[in-house]
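check this one:
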Amino acid sequence: MSNETWQAKNLHEMGLSDRALFNFIPKMERLGICTLAIVKNDKYFTMGVKPWHVSHPHTLFSLSKSFCSMAAGMTVEEGLLSYSDTVTDVLSDSLPEDYDPALHEVSLHHLLSMSSGLHEGSDQDPRKETDLARAILSYPVVYEPGTHFHYNTMGTYLIGRMVSKRTGMSLRDYLMPRLFEPLGIQKPQWDCCPMGYNLAGYGLHLSVTDLAKTAQLLLNRGVYQGKRLLSEDYLSRACVKQIDNYNPDQPDHADWTQGYGYQFWMARKGRFRGDGMYGQVMMIDPNARLAVCCTAGLNPMGDQMDAIHALMDELTALPAADEKEMTKLTGRIMNLTERLPEDRNEPLFGEGSYDAGEGRGFRLEILDENTLRVMFTTPDMNVPLCFTFGRKEAHRGEFNSFVLGEGTQPYLGRFGVKDGVIRAHALMHYAPYKVKLRINAEDEGLKLQVRSIGLDNGTYRLKKY
């Protein structure tokens, strides 16, 4: 089945209510959701906020974990691994000399269900090391495996290493003929650790359309266009609650307390999902045979979950839109665009270097009346962050990510000057990161306001050097 056949022009073709989008679009704009896909009845509908595009790969962060889980399930189905295989059996070459003997009890099942019992430090400190597996396995087991939920991204990295050890391939290469190619997904980028292994728990880049295809596979219980890709045994484990993750001492949003499967979160209303930082979501409703996927650049993921659940409810509950409403909705969708900085062509100001206090520095350079460059430094940065902004049209540049193993991210930089205020926006249209600056002149220097996803937020008084 071609993408053209599978793609719906509107929700009515899928037996869903277009009216639901009237309620969702304002939430989409307010929250910072970049692209959206809705899947039902072997069809999908997509829309995006420019400059993000539904066919562009996007950094998935921890939604990558669900794809690592699928690779593990396929490896088990092929007889190369079992869920009871222990990390010490499979990764014996990576064990440090003084490892905790309790690691002999940590199985693939425990790693998949985030119940390995490994010390919490194993999730953060090893990311600075070259040999991540050896560094992770140097930590003790502090809970009996299978009894305590602890969300551990480096535990997912160990899953990826176990798959690679038994298959002789990277996660991505292993999944190419088994998952990505059958779904019609072009060879994706999956960022690597210093030793060249895929990061597994994060670092995969897929478009919302790719997520829609994956969601359809899950809705069809592992079958895609008549071919079984995921086994029923794997899905019966991965997509159901394996461990309780409710912690009364740390109250959290309801969607993070419903239980955890194999690198999938259980959600309210009988749904389950994969998700990643800053709002990357693939939400599956097996009972309604409905899925919603999105890429985003946002912080309040609880609000996003509430919006997605409401959308899924309304898609099946609200009546169909009439012809007038459909025309209005089509116009709204076509004009979804990230707002540009306002500009009245007023002169630029403030060139120079500034001290923001507490080891923070800021430099503003006026290259010409249509080009602006800024640089930030903070105490924990090895190199400054640097962005260039165009006035008449966006400057196209590259941003060196601060996430381990992640490649450079292209960005679009625009600025404008209105009422004596410089407004500059940098948007990374293949990732959730965005930076919005507002710069005012003051008697002793500048006032800088920063709103961002992925970087600092705050207001700073800048004094010129």
Summary: The domain at 3-317 is CATH 3.40.710.10 (Beta-lactamase). The longest strand covers residues 409-418. The two ends are 63 Å apart (CA to CA). The chain has two domains: 3-317, 352-464.
